[in-house]
Amino acid sequence: METAYVSRTPKSRSLYDRSRKVQPAGVSYSNRYFSPYPFFVKKAKGATLIDIDDNLYTDYWCTHFALILGHSNPTVLEAIKQQAENGWHFGFEHELEVLHAEKICEHVPSAELVRYASSGSEANLFAIRLARTYTQRNKIVKFEGCWHGAYDPLHVAVKPPYDKLPSGGITKASQEDTIVAPFNDLPSFLDRVGKDEIACVILEPVLGAGGMIPAHAEFLRGLREYCDQRGVLLIFDEVITGFRLGLGGAQTEFGVVPDLTVLGKIIGGGLPIGAVCGKKEIMERMDHIRYTGTDYAYHGGTFAANALSLTAGLATIRLLEDATIYDRLHKLGERARGGLNSLFESLDYPATATGIASLLGIHMNGSPIDSRPKDSNVEGSTGLFNWMLENGIVMLRPDLLHGAISYAHTDDDVKILVSTVTDYVKNNGNRKQNRSVPATS
């Protein structure tokens, strides 16, 4: 398969050789690399990517889950063009900030006030700072498998082994106030926190990098009860789930409202964005007019609330207010996961499809994925990734297949996805003997 890929991507190979001379590993983000080299995109439309060698791929990555409507949606594109004529970033206040924030406050249950950032990572940084300022406490709790971006206190326990740092340059001091607990395990969480004075508990209601695993509703309710009893802030990182599970995100889906919510991706319509929103009493600590010194939580950024991101995001949210869009997206997601799990079960193949709504994860593991992330069978996952790639389907990453369905995907796209995986399973035989991948604690 690698030989076939190389033969049909000579321009990508040439461009990758050039890229390696100017970018570490030849890529702008490690998630975008796969062996022997990534293809380079020339154009994207709907659910299709076209590389510089004119190969077509059905895209189940959707720009890191940000493009829920698909690439180059005509309505969003027209809004961007019109705004660009008037300027794309002003460095001063503008009406789009108010219009966009009003939409977030209208739809997200926890949102009473909003502040913008340029990425989800940046928004998580500001959310933690705000929680520490409001509670006057330092310790924070995050969960195994939850990804909150590159902020040092949160950049831990992202993937197994959870006791190993995923990067250099992270000091022990930066994480000495971070407590890590198992996901979807309330007793273990309560045991880990003990009687510590906690500023906040932060989690993804559906694991992203951890494998598209939804939290249990009772787990979220238990966290909410603990936070209420101890004066701790509950933060939902809904950078992925916000406006994807529905207009109200995971907090509406699961019926648990956090104190603060971190948003990103979809609210920017495919352009860079992040946001922190939450209860007025808490968010007002970002008000430099009312608070100073350590009672004030600093927030700022050169490109915060830039006009193009808010324009694309506002156009996207307005389209999503048509309930039929979510209905169709959720049905496509159910068909994809259901079709894949039926396939794996019928052939006794060691794999599981996880997810919720239009989110999808494929785990090449020897046991069902129910509530917590487990080690990935990298060889099996990479094999399926390469097989799909040769059949015009792309997900990321090869070592743990993550996907999302956009409104631009069709029933036929989902059928082809399932049939392609079916062909892979049948061509690779029944691997029941490989059911020995250990679960992590």
What can you see in these coordinates?
The chain is α/β, with parallel strands linked by helices and 441 residues long. It folds into two domains: 57-71 and 322-434, Aspartate Aminotransferase, domain 1; 74-320, Aspartate Aminotransferase, domain 2. Helix content is 38%, strand content 14%. The chain is built from 15 helices and 14 strands. It has helices spanning 2-8, 10-19, 62-65, 74-86, 95-107, 120-135, 172-175, 186-193, 217-230, 249-254, 280-283, 307-320, 323-346, 378-390, 411-427, and strands at 41-45, 48-51, 56-59, 113-117, 139-143, 178-181, 198-203, 233-237, 260-264, 274-278, 352-354, 359-363, 393-394, 401-404. A seven-stranded mixed sheet has the order 4-10-9-8-7-5-6, with helices on both faces. A four-stranded mixed sheet has the order 1-2-3-13. Strands 11-12-14 form a three-stranded antiparallel sheet. Helix 4 packs antiparallel against helix 12 (307-320), helix 5 (95-107) runs parallel beside helix 12 (307-320) and helix 13 runs parallel beside helix 15. The longest helix has 24 residues, at 323-346. It is globular and about 60 Å long. Residues 431-441 have low confidence and may be disordered.
The CATH superfamily of the largest domain turns out to be: Type I PLP-dependent aspartate aminotransferase-like (Major domain)
- Under the CATH scheme, the architecture of the largest domain is 3-Layer(aba) Sandwich
Number of domains: 2
> What is the strand content?
5-15%
Q: Catalogue the unreliable spans.
A: 431-441
**Sheet with most strands:** 7 strands, mixed
Tell me the Rg in angstroms. 22 Å
